[in-house]
Design goal:
Blueprint lengths: L35 H13 L22 E6 L2 E6 L10 E7 L12 E5 L4 E3 L5 H7 L5 E4 L8 H8 L4 E2 L1 E2 L2 E2 L1 H7 L3 E3 L8 H8 L3
Parallel strand pairs: 3-4, 5-6, 5-10, 6-7
Antiparallel strand pairs: 1-2, 2-3, 8-9
């Protein structure tokens, strides 16, 4: 994906559900501002859960979101708009993402809106706080890269790292872009606490 936006997200194919097929758009901790991309990823996964091929999932106009604040979710046909009003502390502007099922045309949108084709396929995470979400959704096998893998404590992911299935990408604030490009992730889930988006822009320049 080469469209502009804060996060380095791209096309992914994944059909997943949360525990007991319950909605997974639920953040119980006050870390949304710092890790808003996690919420976006979980929403992408939940959007495609329990949907048979060719069947349009009926998502209610009002999504039941607990605890998390600072964003809105709006449906437009089969597409979904996700607007993050405060991606980090003291942000001067927000960011908008347009989730569009693969193979369908995107609704008309401004140039600065990042289009994300769904469903998703593989992923690179950049924080240990991202890993539990993969474990909860049962999609730890989709992780193909992570910075400083020695810090990962998840038993499931630890086994994949030891088996060489997850590439070590260096440190999170200085990713090895060559290795990142080689694993060709469908999505890079990252975070920021400031307006410094330098590394994210470099990842986007790779076409990820």
């Amino acid at each position: 994906m080469t469209t502009s936006g804060l996060t380095t997200v791209a096309t992914l194919k994944m059909k997943l559900t949360g525990k007991n097929n319950e909605p997974v758009l639920h953040v119980e901790h006050g870390r949304f501002v710092r890790l808003f991309v996690i919420l976006l990823f979980i929403f992408l996964v939940h959007l495609q859960s329990c949907t048979k091929p060719g069947e349009q999932k009926n998502i209610p106009a009002s999504t039941n979101i607990k605890y998390a604040k600072g964003f809105t979710v709006k449906k437009e046909g089969s597409a979904t708009w996700v607007t993050v009003s405060q991606p980090y502390n003291d942000a001067s502007q927000g960011f908008t993402y347009l989730l569009v099922p693969k193979g369908e045309p995107a609704p008309e949108h401004p140039a600065d809106v990042q289009v994300i084709n769904t469903p998703l396929e593989t992923i690179v995470c950049t924080s240990t706080t991202h890993i539990p979400h993969l474990d909860y959704l049962g999609v730890s096998d989709k992780l193909v890269g992570f910075p400083s893998t020695d810090y990962v404590s998840s038993e499931t992911t630890r086994k994949r790292i030891d088996a060489g299935l997850v590439k070590d990408l260096g440190v999170d604030n200085g990713l090895n872009l060559e290795v990142l490009y080689s694993v060709a992730p469908s999505m890079v889930m990252t975070y920021t606490m400031t307006a410094d988006l330098g590394q994210m822009k470099k990842i986007q320049e790779l076409g990820i």
